[in-house]
Each structure stands twice: as structure tokens, then as C-alpha cells.
Design a protein that fits this description.
Layout lengths: L4 H4 L12 H13 L4 E5 L6 H13 L3 H4 E5 L6 H12 L10 E6 L6 H13 L4 E7 L7 H4 L2 E5 L5 H15 L2 E2 L1 H11 L3 H14 L2 E2 L1 H7 L5 H12 L3 H15 L3 H12 L6 H19 L4 H16 L6
Parallel strand pairs: 1-4, 1-5, 2-3, 3-4, 6-7
Helix pairs in contact: 2-3, 5-6, 8-9, 8-10, 9-10, 9-11, 10-11, 12-13, 12-14, 12-16, 14-15, 14-16, 15-16
């Protein structure tokens, strides 16, 4: 397969962007008026921020869009020298065509250093006649307030499951794939609103087997089934510590899960347990504690066993039905 599906099926105009209709409607008004302010796109990964920026440039500039758009990934080039060099040099030159401005697109702008952001705010003002900035980030809190106040902020939300599934079916038809209905549900569950993750998961599953089933999906993306994790948690709450430990060990070996992955899946499964909310609150607290310790370099096996040991203790306080 010559092209990654994420790029092959990237929408070419704003009307095709999945799940972000309120945002694309506002961007279309900018295209209609042939004018726009500086923009800040904030939201989770895989929700269409980069796609909207590229589609906006294509609709504004037409065939000249590549000449009037300068794209930089701020996570690779994030120092003050980039702002003073590449960005300033592009911003001060006149645009091609009849449009009065060009666009500088800073992807992952929350990776810019504090000094680079401070230098950028003056550049945004000085060259606003010939250049507009579009910045995307996962965490808008990492963008300094002076830059946020200079931008129109667009907040992207995770995609709905039905939107993700509809786009996956579109890709499946184009690629002539044979997919079970349950496999679609598995892909949308694992994606959690991230369309890029869903498409990549579909590609990995298709590479593993012609007929795509939930088993193929979970094996391909190295994730455990929710019901398997739920069973392990229920065993721990029923004071079956040894059984729960053995089940989680099997999941780690079968799917090759890291300790952080196990904790993350346990956290997502807690909400589906039929236990009182007071117990769920304490379970989440224990998971958060283990997650922090793992981020600090603690041993994953010990932390996971500590979590299920605490769950076994909590299980004793669950009232009998």
C-alpha cells in the first residue's frame, strides 16, 4: 500500500471534515469574506485540527495554496531562532496572487518554548498585514495569554462514535475490506474520538487478516478486550487476588501491554462495574496513584499488583445485594 490511509483520505475541503460542523461553518465564513484573524485550534489528537488548517488554505488560495502556506511542526523546530529566522523571513514577504496575506501554520504550538512564544507575539502584530498565523495545540493552557488574546480560539471536541464509524465504513468500501459490525464497534471504542487512531487501527487489522473481526482488531492494536479487563477487576473485588493477578499477567503477555496501558484500560473499565459509586471513587484514586508512580519510573508489575490488592480490600466493604 503506497499511501498511509490517514493521508490518502484526508478531506480536501472544509465540507468534508468529520464531526466539527460548528467550527467548519465559521471557517467557511472566513473563506467567503477573504479575510481572517490569527487562529488557535485546540483539542485532542486526531480530531481534525491540521486538516482544517490545510483545507482552509486550499479554499482561500486555490492553486497557489502551497506557495502561500508555510507549515512548521513546532515540536521539531521550537526555539527562538526559528521565530527570528524562518517564521519572520516568511512573514515579511508579500503573498502570491490577489489575496492580501499568507498563512503560517504552526502545528503542535504548545511545544514552543516560552522565549519563542514571547518573540512570536511581536511578530504576529508587526506582520499582520501580510501574514496570518494558524496554530494548533493539544493543550491551550501551554500557550501564553498574550498569544491567546491575539487569536480567535477554536476548541475541537473528540469525534462521536457514529462519525468515526461512518468514516471507517467509507475507507473500508474504498479498500474493499470485509469487516464485522462488532469490529467497527471495537475500533471506535479503542479510538476514543481520535479518527487518526481509528484509521491506523483499521490499517493494522487489515494487514493482519483479510476478514477483520474484533479478535483481529484487539490483537493488531495490542489492546485487551474491555470484558477481559472487567473480569479481572471483578475477581479482585471478590477477594480473588491470585486469579485477578494471573488474568492481568495473561493479558500483558498475550497483548504485549505496558504497565501504563493496563492501568489506562482498568480506569476505563471501572465505570462499567456494578458497584456503589463510593467504591468506584476509591478505585479511581488508587489507579491515579499507581499511574503517577509509573510516570515517575516505578516497577509496573509491583504497582499493578498493589492496585488489585487494594481492590481486594475494597471489595470487602461492598454491601451484599
Amino acid at each position: 500500500m503506497e499511501e498511509i490511509w490517514t493521508e490518502k483520505y484526508r478531506p480536501s475541503n472544509l465540507s468534508e471534515v468529520v464531526g466539527q460542523t460548528p467550527i467548519t461553518d465559521r471557517l467557511k465564513n472566513y473563506v467567503k469574506e477573504r479575510s481572517m484573524p490569527h487562529l488557535l485550534f485546540a483539542g485532542p489528537a486526531g480530531t481534525g485540527k491540521t486538516t482544517c488548517a490545510l483545507a482552509l488554505a486550499k479554499e482561500l488560495f486555490g492553486e497557489l495554496w502551497k506557495h502561500n502556506l508555510h507549515e512548521l511542526n513546532a515540536s521539531d523546530e521550537r526555539g527562538i531562532d526559528v521565530v527570528r529566522g524562518k517564521i519572520k523571513e516568511f512573514a515579511r514577504t508579500a503573498p502570491l496572487g490577489e489575496d492580501g496575506f499568507k498563512i503560517i501554520f504552526l502545528d503542535e504550538a504548545d511545544a514552543l518554548t516560552g522565549a519563542a512564544q514571547a518573540a512570536l507575539r511581536r511578530t504576529m502584530e508587526k506582520y499582520s498585514r501580510t501574514c496570518r498565523f494558524v496554530m494548533s495545540c493539544n493543550f491551550s493552557s501551554k500557550i501564553i495569554d498574550p498569544i491567546q488574546s491575539r487569536c480567535a480560539v477554536f476548541r475541537f471536541r473528540p469525534l462521536k462514535a457514529e462519525d468515526v464509524e461512518r468514516y471507517l465504513k467509507f475507507v473500508a468500501v474504498k479498500e474493499e475490506l470485509n469487516i464485522d459490525k462488532e469490529a467497527y464497534e471495537s475500533l471506535t471504542y479503542l479510538a476514543q474520538g481520535d479518527l487518526r487512531r481509528a484509521i491506523n487501527g483499521l490499517q493494522m487489522a487489515a494487514a493482519a487478516n483479510v476478514d477483520i473481526t474484533p479478535d483481529v482488531v484487539y490483537q493488531a492494536v495490542a489492546a485487551a478486550r474491555p470484558e477481559e479487563v472487567k473480569e479481572a477487576l471483578e475477581m479482585s473485588l471478590n477477594n480473588n487476588f491470585a486469579g485477578a493477578r494471573e488474568r492481568l499477567d495473561t493479558l500483558q503477555i498475550t497483548y504485549g501491554l505496558a504497565g501504563e496501558d493496563v492501568i489506562r484500560q482498568m480506569h476505563r473499565t471501572v465505570r462499567d462495574l456494578e458497584v456503589p459509586d463510593t467504591i468506584k471513587v476509591q478505585m479511581i484514586e488508587k489507579l491515579a496513584e499507581a499511574d503517577f508512580r509509573l510516570s515517575e519510573g516505578a516497577n509496573s508489575r509491583i504497582q499493578i499488583e498493589a492496585v488489585i490488592a487494594n481492590f481486594a480490600v475494597l471489595g470487602r466493604h461492598i454491601p451484599e445485594p
